[in-house]
């Protein structure tokens, strides 16, 4: 018996329709406010109800605003990955990757990729993470301005590509991947929020640059796959797992699926980590007292030698700093689902086919869940305080069957990078830096420029 074949329980007849959120504009509904200031808009929705109806143009969308109901949504089989956000992603990145599949194909794909991300697989990536974390700080010259956007992208792409698609040739490829992915992400968000199809076909410089980068991304992935095959090597890595994967019938998976899977892992793996590194750099600059605490902890653990992967386990405070950065600046700030049948959430009726949206950003900054909710306070993650935080009020990697497979992989590299940065430098923002929040597929600073000062 598959999960899909389970008959859903009959819905209670007295289910209510969720209240409509206030503040809609005639004709436009809530769309205008959502586009103008999405973070403030999502953060205020809980005042209107636990589940609320939004009008986006002619369409009704449901928003879930409490931690327990976002958990219920993510853990329920009544909702799948679908909706406009995912459709536009599929159009650009491919339809056969794990991030957009549902049902048996999704379960099979998760089984294929999961071993590469298991907790006991992470130490094998240690030497690469260590090398990349130190290479990042060694590239920088004290006093010279660091462009945090490109540098964060660079290290995130290099770590994902070198760890998961191993091979010496990755060094040059990782550089090309950085350029392609950064451009693709910039253009993709624009195409998702302003879906003016024909406009993006015009031969404008920005469209040409986007198309070139997208084509190069797909070409790079084809080259990586072809070279691995030609080498005859089968290292124990994610690419080998994908190349050897079998479908539901026990046949090898198709070329398109292999390609889309590599894209579906590299793309979320680089933008999310890069954005978080930018916010960690920002935090080190804006909270020198926190930077000093990280440095002190690292030195206590390492005795002054360069921080190593093996040290990460002992860096409890540095880990809490990363968690707190993910709370206030969750890279994935909005998520959507679609109801596959008439169902209920929080006592409200949700019709089959409805699109549901929620914001980890709003949930993780909510004053109802966190004392001094907007304060950067890594100590709130200490064991005696963490118990006060409601369940599902902190899930930057989500929960359930779509939970990010890379939570351990990401936390290990982010903790190591934060430790390496804070022990070598203090940071100052320089003239021209813009640390305002840029809302895109992920959240990141508009243009963070820092000057590293040797400790
Ligand atoms: C899914 C967050 C890093 C690969 C997700 C989801 C979240 C998330 C919230 C769930 C989406 C949903 O529920 O609809 C993050 C954050 C990261 C991070 C905050 C780092 C700070 C990575 C990395 C990789 C990765 C490094 C790969 C190298 C994926 C994949 C999925 C996913 C493949 C789709 C899983 C599925 O649908 O089954 N991520 N992620 N992520 N993430 Fe991550």
Short key terms for the protein model shown above:
alpha+beta; 455 residues; 49% helix; binds protoporphyrin IX containing FE; single chain; 12 strands; 5-stranded mixed sheet; disordered N terminus; globular; 3-stranded antiparallel sheet
What's the topology here?
Layout: H1 31-36, H2 38-44, E1 51-56, E2 59-64, H3 67-75, E3 79-80, H4 84-93, H5 103-117, H6 126-139, E4 146-147, H7 148-164, H8 170-193, H9 205-231, H10 238-243, H11 255-286, H12 288-302, H13 316-328, E5 335-339, E6 343-345, E7 348-350, E8 355-358, H14 360-364, H15 383-386, H16 407-424, E9 425-429, E10 434-439, E11 443-447, E12 449-454
Parallel strand pairs: 2-8
Antiparallel strand pairs: 1-2, 3-5, 4-12, 5-8, 6-7, 9-12, 10-11
Helix pairs in contact: 6-7, 6-16, 7-8, 7-11, 8-9, 9-11, 11-12, 11-13, 11-16, 12-13, 12-16, 13-16
Region (Disordered): 1-28
Pfam family, one: p450
Keywords: Heme, Iron, Metal-binding, Monooxygenase, Oxidoreductase
């Amino acid at each position: 018996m598959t999960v899909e074949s389970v008959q859903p329980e009959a819905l209670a007849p007295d289910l209510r329709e969720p209240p409509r959120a206030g503040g809609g504009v005639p004709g436009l509904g809530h769309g205008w406010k959502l586009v103008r200031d999405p973070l403030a808009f999502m953060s205020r929705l809980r005042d209107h109800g636990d589940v609320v109806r939004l009008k986006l143009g002619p369409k009704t969308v449901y928003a879930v605003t409490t931690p327990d109901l976002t958990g219920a949504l993510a853990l329920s089989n009544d909702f799948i990955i679908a909706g406009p956000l995912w459709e536009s992603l599929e159009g650009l990145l491919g339809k056969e990757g794990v991030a957009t599949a549902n049902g048996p194909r999704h379960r099979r794909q998760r089984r294929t990729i999961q071993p590469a991300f298991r907790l006991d697989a992470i130490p094998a990536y240690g030497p690469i993470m260590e090398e990349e974390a130190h290479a990042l700080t060694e590239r920088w010259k004290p006093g010279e301005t660091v462009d945090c956007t490109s540098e964060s992208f660079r290290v995130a792409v290099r770590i994902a590509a070198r760890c998961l698609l191993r091979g010496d040739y990755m060094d040059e490829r990782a550089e090309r991947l950085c350029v392609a992915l950064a451009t693709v992400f910039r253009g993709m968000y624009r195409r998702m929020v302003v879906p003016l199809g024909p406009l993006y076909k015009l031969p404008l410089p920005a469209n040409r640059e986007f198309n070139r980068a997208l084509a190069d991304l797909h070409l790079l992935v084809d080259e990586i796959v072809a070279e691995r095959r030609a080498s005859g090597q089968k290292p124990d890595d994610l690419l080998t797992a994908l190349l050897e994967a079998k479908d539901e019938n026990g046949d090898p998976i198709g070329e398109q699926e292999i390609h889309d899977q590599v894209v579906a892992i590299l793309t979320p793996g680089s933008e999310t980590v890069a954005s978080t590194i930018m916010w960690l750099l920002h935090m080190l600059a804006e909270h020198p007292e926190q930077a000093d605490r990280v440095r002190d902890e690292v030195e206590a653990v390492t005795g002054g030698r360069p921080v190593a992967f093996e040290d990460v386990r002992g860096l409890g405070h540095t880990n809490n700093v990363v968690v707190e950065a993910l709370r206030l600046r969750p890279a994935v700030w909005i998520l959507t689902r679609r109801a596959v049948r008439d169902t209920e959430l929080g006592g409200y009726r949700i019709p089959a086919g409805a699109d549901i949206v929620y914001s980890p950003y709003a949930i993780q900054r909510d004053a109802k869940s966190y004392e001094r909710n907007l304060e950067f306070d890594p100590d709130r993650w200490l064991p005696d305080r963490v118990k006060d935080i409601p369940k599902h009020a902190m899930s930057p990697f989500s929960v359930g069957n779509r939970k990010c497979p890379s939570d351990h992989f990401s936390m290990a590299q982010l903790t190591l990078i934060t430790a390496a940065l804070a022990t070598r430098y203090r940071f100052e923002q320089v003239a021209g830096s813009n640390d305002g929040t840029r809302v895109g597929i992920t959240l990141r600073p508009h243009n963070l420029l820092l000057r590293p000062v040797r400790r």
